[in-house]
Amino acid sequence: MRRVAKLSAACIATAALAVTATACGSTSSDNTTSSSSGGGGKGVKIGLAYDVGGRGDRSFNDSAARGADKAEKEFSGSIKELTAKTSDTEADREQRLSDLAQAGYNPIVAVGFSYAPAVTKISAKFPKTNFGIVDSVVAAKNVNSITFTEEQGSYLAGVAAALKTKKDHVGFIGGVDNPLIKKFEAGYVQGVHDTNPKVKVDVQYLSHGQDFSGFSSPDKGQQAAQGMLDNGTDVIYTAAGSSGNGAIEAVHGAKGAWAIGVDSDQYNIPGLAQYKSSILTSMVKNVDVGVYDFIKSVHDGKPLAGNNVYSLAKGGVSLATSGGFITDIQPKLDAAKKKIVDGSIKVKTTP
């Protein structure tokens, strides 16, 4: 039985939706440690440096956590978790990684593109430590870059939205207007318009530049979604970390509207159970698989390095079928997937 002391889990159990996602994992001092009683201190020591929102965001960070949890259990390991805050500087991110490396954690997984400069610098200072980074590419011998074809999965989300909208009006909410989230937008819009050119797509970002609050502000997600609903949309896809929880809540309050989740299969997230009847599908990004594969490679003595891309063809991204809400359009989704995989459809990575 693992001994677990997780602040985020406690918050989820005791706080309201908006408060949970903004309060839990919001500072770099929100550290979580867990250990396997069967490890005897000899198992793999896993260091996790989360993006803003941390464990308990019900989306991106939670997916990474699932991969680490699986590895911890399988390899009798232990986990040390540190969580970013929206006000982080480069020095903060560097210190977080350095602290884990100095404490002997190996591998260390940086969850999120914002860690790229810090991973570049700290991996050079600790050449015997294996680093992984999700959603960015760092060229170093001891770094494994775990990336995904988000645009391909988002294309399928766009196909689903175009087939399910009754108003020919859908929306996309992005957390921060950076190149990564632009991939989600690009694929989604292309999927919508390739399916039905008459469908209008509203696009809104919650924060800009180096302001990463758009990934951890459910209130902003809720307001943006409500504005889109008031403007006539009836399907909204949100790629914004825990901010998407607020968007899902807003959609649930609109009769006949659908939300499309992201990163995790949000229909099956306990903290979102009261809204599940409004979650059409989720664009699942299997961060857990990438994180687990990396930890396993280190445990096996054959550390992955370079850029390992998890594509639609490899199951790196997919559309969740939980709830059965897309069963009626599955043949069309399967046809679109086949065309992407065989190269008949080239999905854009920029809007």
Automatic annotation (TrEMBL):
One of its GO terms (cellular component) is plasma membrane. Keywords: Cell membrane, Lipoprotein, Membrane, Signal. Residues 50-348 form the ABC transporter substrate-binding protein PnrA-like domain. The lineage of its organism: Bacteria, Bacillati, Actinomycetota, Actinomycetes, Kitasatosporales. Belongs to the BMP lipoprotein family. Residues 1-23 form the signal peptide. Its main location: membrane. It is found in: Cell membrane. This is Lipoprotein.
